[in-house]
Amino acid sequence: MLLLLAPPLAAAQADDPVAHACYFCTAPEMQQVAVGLGEGTHYVYDFDALSIDGYTVSAASGQRVATRFEAEDWVKRQFLSLAEHYMPSAGVVKYFERVRLYAPGSDHGMRTLEEQYILGHHLSALHPRHAQARETVVRYLQRHGNFGFLDTRDSGGRLLQLQVMRERGYPVMALLALNDGNGNSARFHFDYLHRQWAFADATEPGQSGSVQNTAEDFLPGQVASMSYHFSWLNRWFADAFVDRARWAGIEVLGEAPTQTGNVTVLCQRLESGAVGCRYQ
Hints:
Helix content: 10-25%
Number of strands: 14
Number of domains: 3
Shape: elongated
Structural class: alpha/beta
Number of helices: 7
Low-confidence stretches: 1-8
């Protein structure tokens, strides 16, 4: 089945409001934050009180004056949704448990769960059908995400953003436990500029980090060698790992153990500078 690219949300608006934090603040203190932002319209919020106020800052008699106004309903709605999912160390995160989406080429029939459902392997840039797999996840997020802070139906296409996330580079992130979880996960970030979800990374059993997207990812951090261990229960993931290596142009030497055995693959930096792998 061919998937066309899903239409993005409304294009980024030049007048997207940005909300500024003022924790445990009194009304005069929130006004002062607005004054410090200069002339114009500003929004100031308090996560503790779960409140957001609008201010119009103007110059009068050589001084700036902030006049409070009630934030629009859509601003308050998006703010409360942002606050619900905000994590101080990571930005806005929403978790999805046990997401089962059919992998490209799956016929919905009786296959192994790994073959039938999208996992990190299918999302890797090395997989020949990764674009289709990623688009399936994007469509799932758009249809079932229920992200109130991305709902622009009553905002004229505008999205509220938190200044603290802009300053620290925190993303809006969807973290999905793929299939049955158990080490299978994927992260998608929301791109405010283009109003679209984008794949960030994925994990699988037996991986010391993210699922590889390039040949260099098999030796992350410029290490000279790394061993990847897969128990016999994760044999499918071992075979998928080797497939990705070969798709990346890496030669994998040796023979795979029997279907019932554990698998270890050693990847090393060759004299040529390229990456080479072999079964151990």
